[in-house]
Structures are given as C-alpha cells and as structure tokens.
C-alpha cells in the first residue's frame, strides 16, 4: 500500500547524534518496516572541533544497515539561537536551560523543515517520550516515557499539534537498560567504552565552561551579605551562583549557607543560614511564553508540575492570567525556585502521565 506521497513505505528522517539512543532508534524503525534516512547535525564546540567523532559513529552505523546518511551544518543557527540565549540569560542573573531552546529551535523545528528536502514523511528522535493520538479528542498527546527515570518530556513542552503529527519517538516504550543488549545483539559494540554526557554539549569539559564564562559573561566580584545585610564574604561574580545553591560559596566558618537572592543592580549576593532556609520556600510563580500542547484554552485546572528537570511532580493549580502568561500555585512550598528556568506541567489519566505544556519562570511570588 502506498502512502499519501505515493511511496510504498513511510520514510523517516532519523536525527542521529552518534549515541546509544539514536543508534537503537534506527534498529527499531527498520524492524517496523520504515524506510529510514539518517541525518546528523554538526554543532559547534567551544574553542574545539565540533561533534565530528559522534557524526562519524552515526555514519558508520548507517552504513552497517545500508541506510543513507547526511550531515546538516547547524553551527551558525546554534550560535544564533542557543548560545546567544545562554549568554543573555546568564548576564541577566537568570538560570538558563539551553537544551530546551536547542530542542525547540533545531531538533524539532529545523528537523521538520528538512522533511521536504529529503522527501520524508516523519522525523524521529532518540528522546524518551511517547507521542499518542487520542481518537476521542482527536489530539496528539505527549506522554511520559515508559522509562520514567529517562523521560525527556520536560525538554519537549514547546511542541504543538502540527509538529506532533510529524514526529516519532522510537524509545517511548523501552527501558534504557535494555538498549546495550539490543545493540550487542546487532553486533554494534562501539558504545561499550563511551561514556554518556548529561551536560550542555557545547562544552567539552568544566575547564572549557569556566573559560567561556570568563571571556563571555559579565562577571564582577562583590559582597556576600547575610539575611541581616551584614558582609560575611565576597563572591566571584553573580553569574556563578544560582538560587538555593549551597556549595562553593567561599564563606568562612562552620555554618551552612544557601544562596537566597541575587541583587543584580548592586552586585550583591544574599545568603541565609541552614536554619533560615525556609525563606527559600515559595508556593507561587508566574510563567511567561506558555505553550499549551493541545492548543486548547485552559483557564484554571489542577496539574502536576515541576520547575526543574530532575524534580518529581508536585500537585499545583494552573491559572491563566493572559494569552501566554499563567500562574502556578503549588499545594506545598517548593525550595529554590529560580527565575529563567522552566516549569512544565502534566496531568494523569489512568496509568498515563500527559505533558500539557510549560513556560519560563519570570517571577517568584
């Protein structure tokens, strides 16, 4: 049977990073009968050669399975959309999440734009997420992956209905721990000694990251104040700290301190003692640039939310302020909510958890 484009098989453009996840995705797609084209994005590295080694691995795996492989140079768009955002947010004293912007602007938006170029029907990525069409509502749902410990819906909250109808997530129903076994079964042993990276891919090391901050971020030494505005130390630049941070504060004495507030205008860092850390517990926040995946108008509903990727879901109320602005009020206080980060919200239906959308934290109440 032919598809809408007249081809005998649906063609999938698989984004291949050169890692375990995308390599396994290739095997799953081929086993399901798809025609697969591999594409790797060339990303820049800070003061280093880009991700050439990873691309070569992706190319070799495609060759093994007789799959065509192409490279798309994304260095300029990555610098323009991701790195510029990263620098701008840090210089405002906020805590950025560049992976969310990279997913939105490059892996999803640009990936879908490539479908026409390669005459493909869908893009596929190695994200741990599930894309399910609800026949009752006639809407696509972004559901939490089977492997909850690896779920990446937090990074995909910007998706919309038009995009979801063009995306396949081959790893949505698989446990990460099973992937190496599958690769070995298919005689792919290259990942045996390669460690998985969980940090921002632009930096090859912490040394490179520190050097980037020195050269690109406006940093100025200043005073550290306690809750009573007494000077108790000196900070190395406000951009090196985040709300709720406890380590590396360079404050003498045996007391444990937490970053409480960053006074950007006066270049002062406020901290509180361990017994005062309840001051960091807040219940409400304001989100800007909110995306609702279903496209529906939501006025006020009960949700499950998290304002950090690694955080567990918490009960809260989502309330609309205007078109793209919402208020989130948690049932219980949350520790260390940070401006610039992203709050993503969900709902449960039976044994499924559905990502409804999210937005950037612009104010903490």
What report would you give on this structure?
By secondary structure, this protein is α/β, with parallel strands linked by helices. The chain is built from 7 helices and 17 strands. It folds into 3 domains: 11-185, Rossmann fold; 217-278, SH3 type barrels (Roll); 281-364, Beta Barrel (Elongation Factor Tu (Ef-tu), domain 3). Strands 12-15-14-13-16-17 form a 6-stranded antiparallel barrel. Helix 1 crosses helix 6 (179-185).
Write the layout of secondary structure elements.
Elements: E1 11-15, H1 20-31, E2 35-42, H2 52-64, E3 69-73, H3 75-91, H4 98-117, E4 122-124, E5 130-134, E6 139-143, H5 161-164, E7 167-168, H6 179-185, H7 206-216, E8 222-225, E9 231-235, E10 257-263, E11 268-273, E12 281-292, E13 300-306, E14 314-322, E15 325-335, E16 342-349, E17 352-364
Parallel strand pairs: 1-2, 1-4, 2-3, 4-7, 8-11
Antiparallel strand pairs: 5-6, 6-17, 8-9, 10-11, 12-15, 12-17, 13-14, 13-16, 14-15, 16-17
Helix pairs in contact: 1-6, 3-4
């Amino acid at each position: 049977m032919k598809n809408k484009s007249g081809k005998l098989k649906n063609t999938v453009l698989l984004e291949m990073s050169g890692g375990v996840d995308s390599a396994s995705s290739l095997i799953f797609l081929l086993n399901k009968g798809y025609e697969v084209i591999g594409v790797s994005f060339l990303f820049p590295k800070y003061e280093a050669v880009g991700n050439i080694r990873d691309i070569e691995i992706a190319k070799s795996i495609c060759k093994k399975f007789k799959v065509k492989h192409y490279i798309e140079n994304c260095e300029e768009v990555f610098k323009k959309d991701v790195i510029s955002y990263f620098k701008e947010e840090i210089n405002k004293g906020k805590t950025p999440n560049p992976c969310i912007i990279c997913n939105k602007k490059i892996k999803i938006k640009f990936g879908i734009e490539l479908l026409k170029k390669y005459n493909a029907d869908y893009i596929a990525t190695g994200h741990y997420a599930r894309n399910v069409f609800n026949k009752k509502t006639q809407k696509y749902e972004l559901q939490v992956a089977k492997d909850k410990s690896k779920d990446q819906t937090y990074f995909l909250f910007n998706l919309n209905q038009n995009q979801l109808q063009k995306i396949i997530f081959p790893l949505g129903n698989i446990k990460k721990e099973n992937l190496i076994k599958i690769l070995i079964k298919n005689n792919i042993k290259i990942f045996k000694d390669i460690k998985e990276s969980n940090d921002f891919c632009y930096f090859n090391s912490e040394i490179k990251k520190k050097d980037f901050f020195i050269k690109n971020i406006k940093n100025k030494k200043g005073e550290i104040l306690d809750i009573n505005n007494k000077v108790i130390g000196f900070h190395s630049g406000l951009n090196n700290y985040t709300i709720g941070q406890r380590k590396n504060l360079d404050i003498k004495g045996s007391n444990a301190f937490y970053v409480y507030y960053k006074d950007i205008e006066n270049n002062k860092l406020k901290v509180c003692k361990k017994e005062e850390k309840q001051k960091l517990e807040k219940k409400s926040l304001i989100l800007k640039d909110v995306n609702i995946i279903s496209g529906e108008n939501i006025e006020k509903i009960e949700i499950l939310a998290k304002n950090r990727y690694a955080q567990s879901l918490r009960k809260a109320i989502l309330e609309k302020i205007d078109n793209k602005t919402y208020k989130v009020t948690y049932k219980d206080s949350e520790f260390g909510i940070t401006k610039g980060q992203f709050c993503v919200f969900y709902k449960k239906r039976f044994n499924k958890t559905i990502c409804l959308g999210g937005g950037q934290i612009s104010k903490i109440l």
